[in-house]
Design a protein that fits this description.
425 residues; alpha/beta; Peroxisomal Thiolase, Chain A, domain 1; 11-stranded mixed sheet; two-stranded antiparallel ribbon; 14 helices; 32% helix; globular
Amino acid sequence: MSHPPIQRVFITGLGFITSIGNTAEAVEQSLRELRHGMVRYPAFEGENIPVKVTAPVREFQTEADDPEDWVIPAPYSVKREQLRSLGPNALYAMCALQQAIADAKLAPEDVSNTETGLYAASAGSPGIMSRMVNRMYQQGVMRCHPLGVVASIAGTVQFNLVAHFKIKGASTGFTSACAASAHAMGFAFDEIALGRQKRMFVVGAEDGNVETILPFAGMRALSLNPDPGTASRPFDKKHDGFVGTGGGAVLVLESEEEVRRRGATPYAEVLGWGQASDGHNVAISHPEGAGLAEAMARALKATGVTPADIDYINAHATSTAIGDASECKALRAVLGEHAARIAVSSTKALTGHGLSLAGAMEAGFCALALKRGFIPGSAHISELDPACAGLNIVRTTEPVQARVVLNNSSGFGGANVCVVMKAVA
């Protein structure tokens, strides 16, 4: 019995709805100029709310209870009947997917066929869920919106995208919190590499509103710094928590066979990935970074990459003291003598932390960097945390062409994912 050959996997399209830009061009400019997306958030101005800063998506207005009252900027268009089942996260994802399809130059028949699938990640839409449950108790079960469930639960993004874009291949959602869309990317890679699909859309999306972000204040996970210019500062000695954000990011992954058939020009090649769990705590990273170190080691083993090959690592680092220090220990453990050379940064200093959106969004940043020939800097560092000693934390964006990059993601329960990507010659 013979097995089909392992397929090479390439990124051929990107779509972004983010706090630092709603197109690949705008995102690239923000990354190059270290232009952040943080603001003083009006909804956080109450005296009983200690958190003041967030990183909202611009141009969209999704605060109204009725989606028909939302403001959706050009060139995006969503049909009225489609809006009824959307939360803000699914709206952002739909617009990012429209972008990615156009960027990859996919025809309608490329999108809707049994060889094209979609993997997505989102925490759902807690604002819609809470309003629906309140309405159920106050006005009765039968007064709930008939599409309220599919608009609010964790699978809402893939439910809507698969239906509205007529996806006929593999589809599911991932719920490993801040590692979720990185898991989506890893398993999407497997679908193509093993010959089960020719093309996969990888999607991460979050609402990024009060109901999505503010509950993290109760965990003491959010920054209490009221200054938008310094609230998100991974690796800085004074980091005190993350800044929340939302939006949508989509990557188009295709087999080498499809890239050749279509004459596509890839952003980067995905070499493979690794994952591991901390087995330590429901919410806090392992103090020695054990799970992340294992995930990185597994990714390197799976791809045949060595630390000597790596030029850049997009760190998960969210701007929490415990999480950043844990990742620094993992990096030193895996990189060894190369730790002082390999460029490391956290783009969350610019975007804020997108929760389950983060993995896909930052993988997209890595793909942009590989294609356009730059390494994003780690902004807002005034004094490096001593926990980062021995690492090359780059503070400015460098016009350097990386060859191999790693993208790290970590989530609740100690879930860790590392994706390895390579520049296309």
